């Protein structure tokens, strides 16, 4: 919980029946145990109250699902994300050669009738630990390009190998990865047509043979 000490509690002091630390810890434990909504978190807390009291205060028992919901609705999401990422990285360190895969996906059932307000999340996945190391919301599929550098800035990547699909084949993104002390493997498609042509040419055996003959010709006529 030391990673969440700097999280701002927006509640009015006189209305607090449960500590911020207790609600955060209860929610994390419940979600890690498979709970998917506020009601399930409350049920989990009631069923595990004796165990939870060994490391939480819980002066007024288990908070109701409405209390938990209200708290998370007013927390600063950026502060919470930074605290959460710091905690996750502390228990799932990235060592040399580990692969960190970055990809964007649309959240299931996001958006009205599948069209409006669709939520896209760009996530980083640590293959060695099978854990999501961080997520950033992107305003649509095309805006993953701007969301990826934001996500990279949150991560400790030194010594890792970062993989991204062709959407991430951008100079700003590769520069950010290098500055983080990591290497990268990025797909190249038609969004970088000139680079794609250069790569195809470089790996074309006929082209390579032609280059060898050309250099031999230059040397023999020097």
Description:
With 222 residues, the protein is an alpha/beta fold. It folds into three domains: 2-80, no CATH class; 92-187, 2-Layer Sandwich (Nucleotidyltransferase, domain 5), CATH 3.30.420.10; 193-222. The protein has helices spanning 20-32, 38-47, 49-52, 65-74, 77-91, 144-154, 171-179, 193-202, 205-220; strands at 99-106, 120-126, 131-138, 161-164, 183-186. It has a five-stranded mixed sheet. A hairpin with a 4-residue loop joins β2 and β3 (131-138). The longest helix is centred in the last third of the chain and has 16 residues, at 205-220. The N and C termini lie far apart (72 Å).
Q: Keywords, please?
A:
222 residues, Nucleotidyltransferase, domain 5, 3 domains, five-stranded mixed beta sheet, 9 helices
Briefly, what is this?
This protein is 44% helix and 14% strand.
Largest sheet: 5 strands, mixed
* Terminal-residue CA separation: 72 Å
- Write down the overall geometry: elongated
- The Cα radius of gyration reads 24 Å
Low-pLDDT stretches are: none
> What percentage of amino acids are in beta strands?
5-15%
CATH architecture of the largest domain: 2-Layer Sandwich
β-strand number: 5
| Strand arrangement in the largest pleated sheet | 3-2-1-4-5
Task: Report the mean per-residue pLDDT as an integer.
Answer: 84
Q: Helix share of residues?
A: 40-55%
The secondary-structure element order is HHHHHEEEHEHEHH
The CATH superfamily of the largest domain is known as Ribonuclease H-like superfamily/Ribonuclease H
């Amino acid at each position: 919980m030391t990673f969440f000490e700097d999280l701002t509690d927006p509640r009015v002091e006189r209305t607090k029946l449960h500590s911020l630390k207790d609600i955060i810890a209860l929610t994390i434990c419940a979600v890690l145990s498979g709970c998917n909504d506020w009601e399930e978190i409350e049920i989990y807390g009631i069923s595990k109250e004796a165990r939870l009291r060994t490391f939480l205060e819980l002066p007024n028992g288990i908070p109701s699902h409405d209390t938990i919901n209200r708290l998370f609705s007013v927390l600063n999401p950026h502060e919470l994300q930074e605290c959460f990422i710091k905690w996750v990285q502390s228990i799932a360190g990235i060592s040399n050669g580990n692969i960190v895969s970055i990809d964007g996906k649309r959240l299931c059932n996001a958006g009205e009738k599948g069209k409006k307000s669709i939520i896209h999340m760009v996530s980083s996945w640590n293959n060695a630990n099978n854990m999501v190391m961080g997520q950033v919301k992107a305003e649509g599929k095309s805006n993953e390009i701007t969301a990826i550098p934001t996500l990279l800035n949150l991560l400790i990547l030194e010594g890792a190998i970062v993989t991204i699909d062709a959407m991430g084949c951008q100079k700003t993104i590769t520069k950010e990865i290098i500055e983080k002390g990591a290497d990268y493997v990025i797909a190249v498609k038609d969004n970088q047509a000139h680079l794609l042509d250069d790569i195809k040419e470089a790996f074309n055996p006929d082209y390579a043979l032609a280059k060898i003959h050309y250099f031999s010709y230059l040397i023999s006529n020097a």
